[in-house]
Specification:
0% strand, mainly alpha, globular
Length: 137
């Protein structure tokens, strides 16, 4: 039987920015249709698109901490899923079918035993030793 933490952790992996950016690029091709009026963001998206296209759902779930795609990619994915909900007349069942189909590549490798990332392990260990402030450079 899984604990609430063991069940929540895979959910966190499924909705993190790298996972949603992966779906935005690989499953929906949203990077091709978003309008960006900022050269730095356009460049960042262009750098990450090939990385996300080459990745697998399992790679994103197990090593997503290695990716730091522009937040705009995950934001546009969330917006499209919200639009699906609104367009369905707020029908949860219809929306869930669409979302589960789109997210299938990252939902399949999820389980309560999915490996944690090294940063989470380090932060948890430091907290267990009484450390209350952690900074990364």
């Amino acid at each position: 039987m899984a604990t609430s933490h063991e069940l929540a952790f895979p959910r966190t992996k499924a909705i993190c920015a790298p996972a949603l950016a992966f779906l935005a690029v690989k499953k929906l091709g949203l990077h091709k249709v978003i309008l960006v009026n900022q050269p730095d963001l356009t460049e960042a998206v262009n750098v990450y698109v090939p990385l996300l296209q080459a990745a697998s759902g399992e790679e994103i779930i197990t090593r997503g901490w290695r990716y730091d795609p522009p937040k705009a990619l995950s934001d546009v994915f969330e917006s499209v899923m919200g639009a699906v909900l609104v367009d369905s007349g707020y029908d949860y069942e219809k929306t869930a079918v669409v979302v589960e189909h789109i997210m299938e590549d990252i939902l399949v490798p999820l389980s309560p035993s999915v490996r944690r990332d090294p940063v989470s392990d380090l932060v948890e260990w430091m907290a267990s030793k009484g450390c209350t402030k952690v900074t990364f450079e």
